[in-house]
Each structure stands twice: as structure tokens, then as C-alpha cells.
Amino acid sequence: MNPDDLKLILDRIDSLEERISQLELNKVPTKEVKSKSNIEPVKEVAEFSDLNISVSAPFESNLGEYGLAWLGNIVMFFAISFLWQYFNDAGKPLISTLVGVVSVVAVFLMSRYFRKNFTFLSFMFNLFGFIILFYIVLRMHYFTDKPFITNQILATGLLLLLIVFQIYTAFRKQSQILAALAFTFALITAYASRNTHSFFVISIGITCVTLYAYLKFNWWKALTIVLITGFIVSMIWLLKNPVSLVKNPDDLTYHYAFTYLSVLAGLYSLVVFRKPDNSFSGDSILSTILIAGISYSMLVLAIVVKHFPNSFVPFFVSISVYCLVYSVILKLYSPWKYTPSLYALYGFVSISVSVFGIYHFPDSFLLLIYQSVLVLVLALWYRSQIITLMNTVLLLILIIVYYKVSGTLQIVNFSIPVVAFLSARIIKWQKERLNIKTDFIRNIYLFTLFFTFLIATYKGLPGQYITVSWLAISGIYFVLSILIKSIKYRWMAMGNLLISAFYLFLFDLANIDLIYRVLAFLAFAIISIIFSTYYVKKLKRNDSGSPTVEG
Q: Which of 386, 442, 469, 474 is the most exposed place for a label (fewest CB within 10 A)?
């Protein structure tokens, strides 16, 4: 084989490898150019864009092409930053600036040079070019003892101009990674400014741009990065801010912080008005709301615990009003049916916190217990199973906390079973409206009714009347089972009767006077005989005829 033929074959192989590599990288609009041998056309990247790593390629190929590209750029970043730092510390800021400018220009030129044949390496050079540029401009004033730019406004303005240019480039080239990086730079700039209003104004501005990018380009990953990064930066700002309300009670820094954070949370809430379509995942709406809600809650909690432990009621009142009004708006206009329930639930929780802040424990328990009925009634309007379930869970937690903290207020003790009974009946009456398929939630309320009624009478009545009162409760359950034709109340009556029997023989025989003992035994005998008579005359006849209707 002569050398010309061998060279032709090698050129052909190189051309095929280039085409295969570009197919694996899922190229965007391309233009055709000639290969070395002018035999086969190959593709060249028209614009810098996000690139996907081919997971199907061999591990060694991925490590060599992608891993080493990352490692090389990271090492290059540290080398340039250390070189810049060396000249800056040596008192030569002009030379350090020149080094930075030359380095950035060189990196972008390398990105352009490698764009034809080494697309991922070009991608990394472009990405790290913006990182190096932002770092050098940032260090010209911030985080240094020898600033080259002494005017903070000028330094911040240069950073913002750089970020605006990077966002423009990201939008033009449809690069979500470059946009997310620019958004993160904006948050870092906001934190570096060390000014409350600058920090939050920049944060609000970049949040608006991020929402625009999400709505226009479906850049949910960028939105999530900004959400999480913004939460971390805001939390650091709240914990590190040197202003102390203890030293300066008239300072309004953290009042402004609460307002700004509420505005940010409100901006993220706007995603719920996006109409469903096939261009994005509907799960991103729910994820955004949940992440924003959790982040906002933790930030507000940090403000309250650190700076307003005794005067937080206005904060939560305003939150509850906003959430409830917004939930009504979402009920009328939002295409996502679960969103009104989430905001209404958050509003109800805020009301609970406000009630606690006004009345404190244990006095606030009465209002909180009856609030659960109000929430359940409003759940009917929202047709929300979510509110119903969460209201049930919160009520159980509240009851447990009440018994743990106090358990001595008789009006609360007897209100709990009343609320449990009303809630169980509401759920039964409106089961179809709430779209509840099983009796799980209703059974929770019935169990709550069963045990809390026993506890209320045990705590609220003298010892000699406990057994008699429990027997009376059994009679009430039995009468209810007849009136509403529910087997559940008959089982509750029988359970209550058995507990009364155990208490009668284990405690009353040894602790109460003879006359009360006789009264308890007579009451127990009468109730037992009545139950037995009913079962013989009514239930057997119903079993042989039509089945009992569950009410």
C-alpha cells in the first residue's frame, strides 16, 4: 500500500470519528464544512450551547474527554486567580488587572479555536471564561484589602453590566447553564454589596429574570438553582448581618428583610398561572411552590427567632391574609387545581401561629381546636382532600401537644370530642364533594372522639362518677347508632362499655364508697340489659332482612 492511499484511509477514519462524536453530543443547528481529505462533509457548531455528555460512550472516553476537560479548566482557574492575587498582593494592581484581562481574552480565544473539533472543551473554556471574568471583576473591589476600584457603586455597576451581558449571551445562544451561572453571579453580587436594599433589590430583579426565562424557555433547572442559591445566600445574610435590634431597637433592617422576602416568595407564586401544555412538566410548578414555601418559611423563622421572638404576630397575620386571598384568586383563575389548597393551608397555619402569639399556651388551644372545624368547612368550598387530610394531621398534633403541655382546661377537654364528632359528621355528609373514597379520615376523627371523650370525663368529673359517666357515654353512642344507622357508633358503645367494666372492677371496687359502688353496678347492669335487648329484638331482625344502612 502506497503512502497516499494510507493517508486517504486515515483521513476518512478521522472524518467518520468527528461525525460520530457530534451525533453523540446531540448537536444543534450546524453548518457543513469540508474534512481534511475533502471527501466527506462534517459538522461544525454554529453557536455555543448546552452540551450533553454521552453516557453510552465507554468510561475511558468520557473520563478523557469530559473529566479531563473539567479538571483542566478548574486547575487553570486557580492558576489564573493565584497569579492575579500574587501581583495584587505585591502592590501592583494595574499588572494584576492586565493579567486578568489577558487571561480572560486568551480563554475565550481558546474556546473559539477549539469549537470546530473539540466541542466540549470549547464549551468548558467558554464557561470558565465567564467565571474567571466575574471573579477578577469581583475581586477588584470586594473581598480584598487592596481594592483596585475603590468606589463601591462603580464596582457593583461593572459586575451587573457583566451579568447583563452574560444573560444576554445565554438567551441568544439558548444556554440554560450559562444563564444559571449568571443568575448565581447576581446573587453573589447582591450579598457582596453589604447593603440591605441593594441585596434584596438585586435579588428581586434576578428573580424576575429567572421567572421570565422559565416561562419563555422552560428553564426549570435554572429556576431551581436560583431558588436554592437564593435561600442559602439569604440565610447567610440574615445570620451574618451585623445589625442588632437589641442594640438599636429603632432599626428597621429586618422589617425590610421580611417585606423583601415576602415579595420574593410572591414572585415565585406567579408560576401557578402558567397554563398546562406539552412543552414542560407540570411537576415543576408543584416543585417550585414547595421549594419556595419551605425556603420562605425557614427564612421567616430565622428572622422571628433571632430578632422578633415576642413580636411576630403582625408578620404571620399579613402572611395569612395574603395566602387566603391569593388562594381565592387561584381558585377562580389558576389552571392548577391543587394550588388554592396549598396556599389556603399555609394561610391557616399562619393563623394558628398568630393565635398562639396572641393568647399563648394553654389559652390558645380552645381557639385552635375550633379553628380546625372552620378549616374543614372551608375545605368543602375548595373541594380539597389535601386540606382535609392536613387539617386532620395538624389537629392530632395539636391534641397531643395540648395533653403534653397542659391537659387541665376542662373547656378544652370537652371541646376536643365535640370537634372530633362534628368533623366526622361533616366528612360523612360531604364525602362526595371532598372526593374521599374511604373512611380513613373519618375513622381518625371517630377514634379521637372515642378516647378524648373518656379523657375529658376522667379529668373533669369526681372519681365516684367516672364509671357512671362512661356508661352514659356508651348510651349516647348507642342512641346515635340508632338515629344515624351507623355500626361504627355501636362498636364505640361496646368499646366504651368494656372500658367501663374494667375500670369498675379494677378501681371503683377499691376506691369509691359503697353507695356509689351500688349506683355504678346498677347503671352498668341497666345499660348492658338494654344493649342486649336491642340486639335480640332489632339487630337479628335487620340481619335476616335488609342490611344496616351506614350513616
A: 386
